[in-house]
Structures are given as structure tokens and as C-alpha cells.
Write a structure and sequence with these properties.
Layout: H1 2-28, H2 33-52, H3 58-86, H4 91-101, H5 103-113, E1 122-128, E2 135-140, H6 142-168, H7 174-197, H8 206-222, H9 231-240, E3 244-249, E4 254-257, H10 259-265, H11 269-272, H12 277-280, H13 284-293, E5 297-305, E6 308-320, E7 326-335, H14 337-388, E8 390-396, E9 402-404, H15 406-412, H16 423-427, H17 432-448, E10 452-459, E11 465-476, E12 483-491, H18 493-536, H19 541-566, E13 572-574, H20 575-589, E14 597-602, E15 607-609, H21 610-631, E16 638-647, E17 652-659, H22 674-685, E18 689-694, E19 699-706
Parallel strand pairs: 14-16
Antiparallel strand pairs: 1-2, 3-4, 3-7, 5-6, 6-7, 8-9, 8-12, 10-11, 11-12, 13-15, 16-17, 17-19, 18-19
Helix pairs in contact: 1-2, 1-8, 2-3, 2-8, 3-4, 3-5, 3-6, 6-7, 7-8, 18-19, 19-20, 19-21, 20-21, 21-22
Enzyme class: transferase
Domain PAS: 234-275
Keywords: ATP-binding, Coiled coil, Kinase, Membrane, Nucleotide-binding, Phosphoprotein, Transferase, Transmembrane, Transmembrane helix
């Protein structure tokens, strides 16, 4: 019983000590998770072992054993990581190692706390109450050996690499290294003592050795700042620095040189350590003179490397020993070849920038002149808009910003206090009959970019109606690519009213012209009727024929005026319809038996002005009268062919007239009769040309005249 009390007290003492170390570390370095984990795991084991010695029933003791093994499994991993940190391994590398290091400890807990696989940990377990130190006994299983070997392996590797690094590095803090070695050796020694002597001496010395581990590692962690600044880190920085470093004593002897300096001066460390700088390095004399005559200096040097010259910056940093006398210097050699190239480039770019600045200054002055001119142009344009009454409304489709000229407010009669009216404010003023047109035009422009030009009426706020001409289009700026919708509005009320007045005047004129043509036609009809009545009292056949011919001429003119007042165009007639009517009339007036003489017409829809229609109609009337009177005998079957056409190439009208009658006698001249004289006069009036020939049988007339007759002088 006395051994149980003694070892229980020892275990509790060790646990309390380790707990105090945990609390001390928590106060001084609460972010040091590895150290806190180490002290916590060691304390857990010691308190667990103290409970194990109380000989609780086997199920309770097994649970206590499970708690103990939390500390046994975690502590070696924490020690291994501490050693790696001391040796300067990067934090990120250690973080990547931790998951793999914790695989076996975590699986051990699964084995211990899972009844199905706990035989892997121990094959048989019992409480030994007959021993000098009663307690838990077991026959180890396979997994107990695995975790034991794993812990020994971690501690052994930690000890070996610690010893090797300490021996190789001359700048190592020996006191700190010895403390860490003791902290690693203690749990190893405890394991071997328990494993080999437990059968002969049934005493567990593990709490005692774990207490040694905690006591030795605590000052290494806290007092010597083990996990933050380590001596080996200085050597790491010295050898991995991008600049070359050479340490000289006050005699100019090389005491240390890093790898970058070896590369720069093409030497090896073994060949130059302890040698004079003058005889060991390129430019050694020059460097020594600088060091000898200056307490601190910066110089540029150049060193040739296999047909290539590199440039370096030398910083001389003197250091003193305790008696404040100069005891040596550090030469920091930094390659500045790339900097020199960049400097040359910078000089080149600076010169180029100066040239560009000069060009930009010139361009700026020119731009300033153009901007001033543009401002003047804008003022002139604004003035022109004011004079022309043009209102500009711009809408930025991206930012929805609006620009509205004063003319827009004036045109729509909007309140001048609202400088940026919305599109809806304009639509409200549109008369209902025009609303759909205006609204759809605005939407098509804004949504689809379809430009428009429309005219519509509005009712302003003062109840006055105004006619507006609106034009809309999409504009795109060059600088930022933003799209603007531009509306241009103009008050066209006066123009619309004038157009209505002109339209009314034109309508009155058309009515008057139609009335005139109608009255002329009626008057000519009266003249024709008078001639017809008068001819009945004439017995002489020749005189009676003259009356008939005159009547035909009057009727041909009356038909022209009849066509004019029946036409929608009061200045032109459809000449095809006219030819059909005149031929029908003359056939009837000459009492031609139906079916004896036929008239065939080839004529497209051609419109003739009254200036051309009157003389052309008289010519056609004379030709038809001559054919009916002279070409055919009474009852003879005959044919008259009329072709009227227009050529856009020559701008000429052509009247081809042909009958198949008896034609002209050889002893009769064409120009002898009155009809021929009238025809020739009418052709001259048209500025045209006439030709005729005997067609055998019949005659053929061809009359051409221009579309645009020359002005009379």
C-alpha cells in the first residue's frame, strides 16, 4: 500500500507541475499551440496514471487507460514538431506534415474505445492486486506494439537529426540544444526501462521522466523563444540571402562567405576562409582599400564572368566588439546588372517621354485652340437653334441622364422650373389622335434604335394647339461608347397653317379651273351645235362640208377641255382615252357605215399637257377627216392605224398615222389644201417635224415633237 501512495503522489506531483507549465505557457505564448498540446498531453498521462493506481474495477480502469493513451499518443508527435521548428523547417511544411503524423494516434483511440477491435490493443487484461505495486496488467496486442514502435521511432528520429544538426553547425546555442536533447531522451529512457525491467521490478517510472521532459522543454520554449527565433535560422538566412555576404576581420582576413558570394567571385568557401581578401578575390585590393579607409561606404564595381560583365553594389558595414574598436567589416555584394539595364531603359524612356511631352504640349495647345473654336461653334449652333426654333432633347441610355435645351421647354410650353422633363411629360401633351404614332416611334428608337421623322399636334398647358415636327436617332460617343438618344423638335404651327391655307387656295383654284374647262367645253359645244344648225340651211355641198370640218375641229377642242375637267390633274389628259373618243365621234359625225372603216389604236397610258394636247388633237382631227373625206369611196372597206408613243431616250413623242385608202395622186401636192396648211402650222407650234409618203395603198404620216418645247422669244 505504501508504494501505491508513493507513486500516486509522484504522478500527481508530475501532473500538477506539467499543468502549471501549461498555464505558464498559456500566459506567455497563448498562440503556441504545439507547446500547449505537449504539456497538456503529458499532464493527462500523469493524472491518468495516478487514477490507474487506485485499482478501480477493470471496466473503469480500461476507460482510464484510454485517457492515458491520449497523452502517450500525442506527446511524441508534439516533441517531433518542436524539434523540426527548432531546426528551421518552414511553418507551412509542418502544417502539411501534421495530418499524416496524427493518423496512428487517432486510430489508436478508435481501437481503444471500440469493443469489437480492442483485442488489437490487448489480448488479455486483468487487475494485479498481489504485486508490490498493484495495478492494471495486460498481454499486449498487435496495435500496442505498433504505437509503441511509432512513438520510439518519432523520438529517435528527433534525437538523431537534433544531434547531427547541432554538431555540424558551429553557431548552435549548445545550452538550448542540450536542454532539448534531454527533453527527447527522457521519454525514450522511460520506455526502455519499463519494457525491459517491468518483469523484475514492477515499478512504472514514466511520470518521473515525463516531468523531466516538461521541465527541460519549458525554458527552451519560453525563455529561449524556441519556436520563434532560433540560431540555425541565422545560418539559413545567411546562406539563402539573395546578396553575397563576406565577413572580414580587422586584418582583412575572410572569416565567412556565403554561397551567393562564392558564385559572384567564382571561389569556394574552403579555398578563401582565413585568407587575405587582396589575394583571394577579384578586385580584392580595391575592396581592401575601401574598407581600410572608410568606416562605412557604398560603391559600384564590375566583374567579368566568361565574356560577360556584371555590375554589383558593395555595401561595407563595419562591426565593433566590446571595446568599441573596429574589429571587422561585412561586405554585402548585390548584383545590379538588371537594375543598370533598367536604368538605361529608364533614361531612354525618360528622353522619349520628354519628346512625347513636347509633342503632347503642342497637341494640347492645338487641342485648346480647337476646343475654343468648338465652344464658339457650339455657341453659334445654339444661337442657330434658337433662331430656327429647334429644341434638343438627349437621353443617356446607360446613366438615364437627360439634357434638355431651353427651346424644348418653350416649344412644349413646359414649366421652366423643371429643367429635365421626362419623356412621359412630353407624351402627356400629345393629342389623342397622334398619341399611338408618337409613343410607338419613341419606343422603337429607345428599344431598337430605329430612327424616325414624324409630325404631330400637341395641346400645350395654355390650351393652345401646336404642330410639332419630331426627329429621333441614336448617337454613340467615341470615348466611352455610351449611347445617347437624341430628339430634335421644331414648332411648325405657322407652316402647317400656311399649308392648310395653300391647300384650300389650291382646292379653290382646281374648282375654278374645272369650272372654266367645263364652261369652255360647253361654249364649244354650243358653237358646234350652232354650226350644225346653220349647215342644215346650206344647199351647197362644199360649203356644207366646210361647216362639218369646222364643227369637227371645234368638237376635238371641246373633248380636250372635257377630259381636263374630268381628270384629277387639271393640266394633263390621258391621251389614249382622248384618241378613242375623238375617233368614235368623227366616225359618227361623218356617218361612216359600221364595219366599213375600222380604226386600230396602239397607245400606252400617256398624259399630255394642255399645251401639247390641243395642237396634237387638231392634227389628229384633220388627218381623220381627210381619210374619211378623200381616202375611201362610199361603202369601201378600209382601215386606219394610229400609233402614239413616247421615247425616254430621245424625249420625243411620235404620232404614226396610216390608212389603206387610195393615197395621193402624183399630180397633187401635199401642201396645197387648207387642212395641210393647218397641220403644218400646228406641227410648228409643237416644235415638231412631219413626214408623209404614199404607202401603196394609202398614206403614212409620221409626226414627232419634243417633250419640252423651247420657250418662245
Amino acid at each position: 500500500m505504501s508504494y501505491t501512495v508513493l507513486f500516486t503522489g509522484l504522478s500527481l506531483l508530475a501532473g500538477m507541475l506539467l499543468l502549471s507549465l501549461f498555464i505558464g505557457t498559456l500566459r506567455t505564448s497563448k498562440n503556441n499551440v504545439i507547446a500547449l498540446t505537449l504539456f497538456a498531453s503529458l499532464a493527462v498521462y500523469c493524472f491518468g496514471y495516478a487514477l490507474e493506481l487506485q485499482c478501480f474495477p477493470l471496466p473503469v480502469t480500461l476507460q482510464i487507460i484510454g485517457i492515458e493513451y491520449i497523452g502517450i499518443a500525442i506527446a511524441p508527435v508534439a516533441v517531433f514538431i518542436l524539434v523540426l521548428r527548432y531546426l528551421g523547417l518552414q511553418t507551412q511544411t509542418i502544417k502539411r506534415l501534421i495530418p499524416s503524423l496524427l493518423i496512428i494516434p487517432l486510430f489508436s483511440q478508435i481501437v481503444i474505445w471500440t469493443p469489437l477491435i480492442i483485442p488489437w490493443f490487448y489480448e488479455q487484461a486483468w487487475m494485479n492486486t498481489t504485486s508490490i505495486l498493484p495495478g492494471f496488467e495486460m498481454i499486449p496486442g498487435v496495435w500496442w506494439y505498433i504505437i509503441s514502435i511509432w512513438n520510439v521511432l518519432l523520438l529517435t528520429i528527433s534525437l538523431i537529426i537534433l544531434i547531427i544538426k547541432t554538431i555540424r553547425n558551429h553557431d548552435t546555442n549548445w545550452k538550448l540544444s542540450i536542454l532539448i536533447c534531454i527533453g527527447v531522451i527522457a521519454p525514450l529512457l522511460s520506455f526502455f526501462l519499463n519494457f525491459y525491467l517491468r518483469q523484475s521490478i514492477p515499478i512504472d517510472s514514466t511520470p518521473f521522466f515525463l516531468m523531466i521532459t516538461g521541465v527541460t522543454l519549458f525554458p527552451a520554449i519560453n525563455k529561449h523563444n524556441l519556436l520563434n527565433i532560433v540560431p540555425i535560422a541565422y545560418a539559413t538566412v545567411f546562406n539563402t540571402l539573395g546578396s553575397g555576404l563576406i565577413v572580414l576581420d580587422n586584418q582583412g582576413n575572410i572569416r565567412e562567405i556565403n554561397k551567393e558570394a562564392e558564385k559572384i567571385f567564382s571561389v569556394s568557401k574552403a579555398a578563401v576562409i582565413g585568407e587575405k581578401i587582396q589575394s583571394s578575390l577579384q578586385l580584392g585590393d580595391y575592396l581592401y582599400n575601401i574598407i581600410d579607409h572608410s568606416s562605412g561606404k557604398r560603391e559600384e564595381i564590375s566583374i567579368s564572368h566568361s565574356k560577360k560583365t556584371e555590375y554589383y553594389l558593395i555595401d561595407i558595414i563595419p562591426f565593433n566588439e566590446g571595446d568599441s574598436k573596429k574589429s571587422g567589416s561585412i561586405l554585402m555584394v548585390t548584383c545590379i546588372s538588371e537594375w543598370k539595364q533598367k536604368e538605361d531603359k529608364l533614361i531612354e524612356y525618360t528622353e522619349l517621354i520628354e519628346i512625347r511631352n513636347s509633342e503632347l504640349n503642342g497637341a494640347y495647345k492645338e487641342l485648346k485652340i480647337k476646343q475654343d473654336a468648338l465652344k464658339e461653334s457650339e455657341k453659334s449652333l445654339k444661337k442657330a437653334h434658337e433662331i430656327a426654333g429647334l429644341g434638343i432633347y438627349e437621353l443617356n441610355l446607360s446613366s438615364k441622364q437627360i439634357f434638355v435645351s431651353d427651346e424644348v421647354l418653350t416649344i412644349f410650353g413646359l414649366n421652366s422650373a423643371n429643367k429635365n422633363p421626362d419623356i412621359s411629360d412630353i407624351l402627356k401633351l400629345v393629342k389623342p389622335s397622334y398619341f399611338d404614332l408618337v409613343s410607338s416611334s419613341f419606343d422603337s428608337l429607345i428599344k431598337s434604335g430605329i430612327p424616325f421623322t414624324i409630325e404631330f399636334w400637341i395641346v400645350r398647358s395654355d390650351e393652345n394647339e401646336c404642330a410639332i415636327r419630331g426627329k429621333g436617332e441614336i448617337n454613340q460617343e467615341d470615348l466611352n461608347g455610351e449611347k445617347y438618344v437624341t430628339f430634335i423638335f421644331q414648332d411648325i404651327t405657322e407652316r402647317k397653317l400656311m399649308e392648310e391655307e395653300i391647300q384650300e387656295a389650291n382646292l379653290e383654284k382646281e374648282i375654278l379651273l374645272k369650272e372654266i374647262h367645263h364652261r369652255v367645253k360647253n361654249n364649244m359645244q354650243i358653237i358646234s351645235s350652232l354650226l350644225s344648225m346653220q349647215s342644215r340651211y346650206i344647199k351647197d355641198p362644199e360649203i356644207q362640208m366646210i361647216f362639218k370640218e369646222t364643227q369637227a375641229r371645234v368638237r376635238s377642242l371641246a373633248l380636250v377641255h372635257e377630259q381636263l375637267y374630268q381628270s384629277t390633274n387639271l393640266n394633263k389628259i390621258n391621251y389614249r382615252e382622248y384618241i378613242q373618243k375623238i375617233t368614235k365621234y368623227l366616225l359618227q359625225s361623218h356617218e361612216i357605215t359600221k364595219g366599213t372603216i375600222t380604226c386600230s389604236l396602239v397607245c400606252p397610258d400617256i398624259e399630255l399637257t394642255i399645251e401639247k394636247a390641243v395642237p396634237c388633237s387638231l392634227i389628229l382631227s384633220e388627218l381623220l377627216t381627210n381619210s374619211f373625206k378623200h381616202a375611201f369611196r362610199e361603202g369601201q372597206i378600209g382601215e386606219i392605224r394610229i400609233r402614239f408613243s413616247f421615247s425616254s431616250l430621245s424625249n420625243l413623242y411620235t404620232l404614226d398615222y396610216q390608212d389603206n385608202g387610195k393615197g395621193f395622186s402624183e399630180n397633187i401636192q401635199y401642201k396645197e389644201g387648207m387642212g395641210s396648211t393647218l397641220i403644218n402650222g400646228l406641227v410648228r407650234q409643237l416644235s415638231g417635224h412631219i413626214s408623209f409618203e404614199n404607202a401603196n395603198p394609202g398614206v403614212h404620216y409620221s409626226i414627232t415633237f419634243p417633250e419640252n418645247m423651247p420657250e418662245k422669244k
